[in-house]
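In this supplementary section we document a worked example of the pipeline. Step one takes a protein sequence of length 300 as its only input; no multiple sequence alignment statistics are reported here. Step two produces a three-dimensional model, which step three serialises into structure tokens for compact storage. The input and output of this example are shown verbatim.
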Amino acid sequence: MKILKISFFVILLLNLMGCDEDRFTAVKNIEFPEHESVLAITSHIGLSDQFTAPQAFVGHSLGILDQQDYTIINDATVELYKDGNLFYNLEPLNNNGSYFGPSGQDITPGTYTMKVSAPNYDPVEATQVLPSMATVLSATYEFEKVPFDFDSDLYDLMKLKIADPEDEENFYAFEMVFEIMDGNGNMREAFPYSDSDDPLFEYGYNVEHILPDISFNGKNYDVRLVQQSKWDVQQGETLIAVRVNVITLTKDYYTYEISRNLNYEAEDNPFAEPVLVHSNFEGGFGVFTLNNVTTYRHEF
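The serialised model returned by step three reads:
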């Protein structure tokens, strides 16, 4: 028994000695390689109510230890090529790093390449293929149909049956517009916030809800959209129709949105691993993406 007591106190003493603060402290000097600044571009070009003018923002990268702000680049050359031929030039506007292309330019099927160059920087480029338009086969709309988001109210449910192309990897986003008429016959539009109770939806940063076709590739699929029309239709008004923009995104667009949202969610979280935002520019950083859109109008 005495031997057991002595052994216990010896083990306890060793543990106390081992818990010295210095045993949990270690200093490791990490040498970061010198950073060579490269061009960084963000450009989303496509069709929908939200994306109507081709534009790009041109900046440059900073090293992890750099303390200064980045410099706006207003003397860049931004060119968009379609199927190997120059489609148009994007011109600088307002000296804030933004470049815009001509309005009303049709974005038709093809392969698009954005090339950007600027003094003192190596040129960069990225390529995208315009995704195909979605095919909407039918739609239904039911008022105050389903519970959603722990709310005591019931939400409207709209079902869109889409035909997903076979042997294509597609990613869908959705925008909704209400057409509303008042008692005097005047029309106005409202833009409701629409979500989904479908677990297949994923969350992006600017494009908040994205539906990948990985589980229904090449098949018809019923998309469920939930929203509140009674928040937008006032007393004496009538909801005449709802328009839905079904937007198809490129895979780079999808990956950028998902990674940027995960990066945002990881900020100020000591338990989260860092998330790199997706980039597709060769020789630089940033993203160039395309989207296509088809609009379905459902009348009441």
